[in-house]
Each structure stands twice: as structure tokens, then as C-alpha cells.
Amino acid sequence: MTRTETAGPADSDIPAPHSERQARRTVLRDGISIGVATGTYGLSFGALATTAGLSLAQASALSLLMFTGASQFAFVGVIAAGGAPLAGAMSAALLGTRNALYGLHLSRLLRPRGAGRFGPAHLVIDESAAMSLDRGSEDLSRLGFWSAGAGVFVCWNTATVVGALGARLISDPGAYGLDVVAPAAFAALIAPRLKDMQTWRAAFLGAVVALVFVPFAPAGVPVLMSACAVTVVAIRGSRAGRRP
Amino acid sequence: MWLGILVGAAACYSLKLAGLSVPESVLEDRRVRKIAALLPVALLAALTMTQTFSQKTHLSLDSRAVGLSAAVLAVLRRMSFLTVVAAAAVSAALFRLII
Questions:
Q1: B47 vs A66, A126, A209: nearest CB
Q2: What's the whole-number average pLDDT of chain A?
Q3: Which residue of A has its CA nearest to B34?
Q4: A122 or A14, greater pLDDT
């Protein structure tokens, strides 16, 4: 059975797949790769959580139940600074707000119905959202979401345990460059999507607005301001230039 | 501590669920579709910048910038995903070691 690729324009960054199976394998491999990469800073999460005074069970509960890296680091950061656990929960929620925004894109893609959304919802994180962007066809994008979500879930939770147990070995994640793993991964994931002017503008605006707000807003808010800015610009743009 | 963990986890899950529960009629709106497509890229670009150039609520320029530059170079040379991430981590760690 041969299958001609008709879904979407050929992506110059992904080698033209000879078959659906090959394309699926590429997406699966990428999903596992991002799981592995995320696992490395899962190690530093486990270590930081233990250093902040959380037990192994508490650190694991965060990774299993909260399962959104930035929020977990925020929670642990508040505890480490001597803050109350509920204050930690507040800042975790603030950091987790962006996951709701990924939902706009993901619900179009996954089209979850009723109780069917409870499972995928848990896997909505930066990495799975990034992997679901424009993989060539909707099928492959969905596979990207699931493979990254599942890959990260397994690696992140395993790494949390290992990191918590080996806290003394990795008490300074920066020493191994682990603190740059996440931004490097995000850069690698969005680069192939920057194909047109509009996407470039959104990325540029998002980047600049976030940095401008860093000194004035608590962690997590600058990124939300980027989302606001891009939303406003997109709405105005579609009003102004409706017909070319 | 456990109360904080459970409340935080519940809040984060609710936010994720809320995003997937937007009614289809809203999603079909042309402007919403455009925004939905652009938001992930904007958010991830914003995260890349804040996680590289900020320390809590200060802007900062340190070895992470070296790491991200290495990542960008690797992306431009079309290296594989894991190579990009490894290049970033290794160069940031080496830079830290040297200075």
C-alpha cells in the first residue's frame, strides 16, 4: 500500500516521509527524546524538592499529581524560602495558568468529549503542547501530543525519585547546565514552526513582552502578558487586514 | 505541607481541564482559531527568554545565555533534538567551570 502525502505542505525540516509509518516513528522518537531531556531537569527538581525539606513521597506526589514543571519548581521555591505551603500552591497555580491557554489549541486538535477530556488534561504541559504544533497532519500532531505527554510523564516521575534520592550529588543543577535544558528544548521545538511572518511576529512579540515584564511582575506573569499581547495584536490584525 | 501539595495540584489540574473544556462554538470562531494557533508559539518563545535571561524577578545575563546560543547554533545546523539540548547543557556547564 502506497500512500501519497496530501495533508499539509511538505515541511522542509522533517524529511518527506515515505510512509505514514515512518512519519509516526519520527514523531514517537521525538516524543521519547523530549521525555529524556525533560527527565534531566526532573533530576534537579527531585534534588531541589528534597533540599527544600520535602519528603520523597511529597516530591513524588507533586510530580504525579501536579505534573507541570514550572509550577512544581515554584512550589518548592516558596517552601525553600520559608513560605507557607498554601502560598506555594498559589504561585504554582499562577505558573500553571498558561496550560489553560494551550487548551485552546489542543482542544481543536484532540476534540475531547465529556469525560474523555480528564485523561488528556493531565498531560497538557509545555512540552506536549510544543510537540503538537503542526507536525504535518492532525493525526501526527495528536501523536506528538500523546508521545511527548506520556514520555515526559514517565521520565519526569522516575527522575524525581532518582533526583530526590541523590540530592547531595546534584544540589546545584546549574553545575551540569541542567538549568538551560528547558529553554534549549523549547527553542528546538518552536524553530521548525517559524515558517511564516505571522508566526515569527508572535514569537518575537511574546519574547520581548515577557522580558519587559520580568522586573515588574511575579514569576509566571510575564509569560501571561505575552499571551495577552499576542491576543490583542491578532485580533486587531484580523480586523484591519480582512481582505488582502 | 500535604494540604498545600493537594490544593496546588488540584488548581493546576483544573486549569488544564478548563483549557480543554472551551465550547466548540467558541473554538470555531475565526479569531479564536488564529489566536489558538499563535499562542503556543508565543508562550514557548516567552518561556525560552524568561528561563534564560531572568533570575526570579531580575533580568540576568549568565552562562545560560551561552547555552541557549549553542542550542540556536545547533538548531540552525539541523542537529537532532537531543544534540541541541546536550550542546546547550554542556556549553553552559563548561562556561560556568571556566569563569
A1: A126
A2: 88
A3: A234
A4: A122
Angle CA A62–A124–A22, to nearest 5 = 120
Specify the pLDDT at position A219.
Answer: 87
* Predicted confidence (pLDDT) per residue in A62-89, tens digit: 999 999 999 999 999 999 999 999 999 9
Domain count of the fold of chain B: 2
A100 to chain B: closest CA residue: B19
CA distance A95 to chain B (A): 9
Q: Identify whether residues B21 and B43 lie together within a single domain.
A: yes
Interface contact flag, A231 B39, Cβ < 8 Å:
yes
Contact across the interface for A104 and B8, Cβ inside 8 Å? no
pLDDT band at A19 (very low <50, low <70, confident <90, very high): confident
Q: Looking at the structure, tell me whether residues B36 and B2 fall in a common domain.
A: yes
Tracing cell 515554584 back to the chain, one arrives at A74
Q: Would you call B33 and A230 a contact, using CB atoms and an 8 Å cutoff? A: no
Residue at grid coordinates 496546588? B8
Residue A242 above 70 pLDDT?
no
- Closest chain A residue by Cα to residue B64: A180
Range of the domain at B85: 62-99
Q: Tell me if B96 and A189 make a contact (CB, 8 A cut-off).
A: no
Tell how far CA B46 is from the center of its chain.
7
Residues B3 and B43 in one domain: yes
Asked if the Cβ–Cβ distance from B50 to A214 is below 8 Å, we say: yes
Say if the ipTM goes beyond 0.90.
Answer: yes
Residue ranges covered by each domain of chain A? 20-175, 194-244
Q: Do A211 and B48 touch (CB under 8 A)?
A: no
